[in-house]
């Protein structure tokens, strides 16, 4: 809020108030992708330029799947440890890269990471039946 006030010269309370419908919808649906049209409308209402809104929000919603990537990588390492499988360094790198690519390609719906976790597990030859853990 301080940067918004000092650098952007905008009232943080009014800015967040304009974005409240998008935040509430994202919280209620558990998906930032579903809220893209509403987020774009709210951002424009908050005074963000059209060029910035039209580029940043769609790209950000697509790329900002870092939670999914972390979940898939950690789940893969957990499943390997539970099954007493020692992953080699190249397999760990493959896990990280596959999880990142799978997260970017995942649908923006809740629990889409479960589907793409199968790809990550198959990349390092782990059994997919352990996803239920």
In summary, what is this structure?
Helices cover 70% and strands 0% of the residues.
Write the layout of secondary structure elements.
Blueprint: H1 2-6, H2 12-29, H3 36-45, H4 50-63, H5 66-82, H6 89-105, H7 112-123
Helix pairs in contact: 2-3, 3-4, 5-6, 5-7, 6-7
Descriptive overview:
This protein is an all-alpha fold and about 130 residues long. Helix content is about 70%, strand content about 0%. It contains seven helices and no strands. α5 runs antiparallel to α6 (about 90-105), α5 crosses α7 and α6 (about 90-105) packs antiparallel against α7 (about 110-125). The longest helix is centred in the first third of the chain and has 18 residues, at about 10-30. The radius of gyration is 19 Å and the shape is elongated.
Helix content: 55-70%
Low-pLDDT ranges: none
Strand content: under 5%
Largest sheet: none
Oligomeric state of shown chains: single chain
What separation lies between the terminal Cα atoms?
40 Å
Order of helices and strands: HHHHHHH
Protein structure class: mainly alpha
Q: In total, how many beta strands?
A: 0
Radius of gyration: 19 Å
Keywords:
133 residues; mainly alpha; 7 helices
């Amino acid at each position: 809020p301080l940067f918004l006030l000092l650098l952007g010269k905008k009232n943080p309370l009014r800015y967040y108030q304009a974005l409240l419908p998008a935040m509430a919808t994202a919280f209620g649906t558990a998906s930032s992708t579903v809220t893209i049209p509403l987020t774009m409308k709210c951002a424009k209402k908050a005074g963000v330029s059209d060029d910035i809104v039209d580029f940043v929000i769609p790209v950000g919603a697509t790329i900002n799947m870092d939670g999914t990537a972390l979940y898939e990588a950690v789940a893969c390492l957990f499943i390997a440890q539970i099954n007493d499988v020692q992953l080699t360094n190249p397999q760990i790198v493959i896990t990280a890269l596959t999880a990142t690519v799978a997260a970017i390609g995942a649908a923006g719906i809740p629990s889409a990471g479960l589907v793409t976790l199968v790809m990550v597990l198959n990349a390092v030859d782990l059994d997919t039946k352990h996803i239920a853990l």
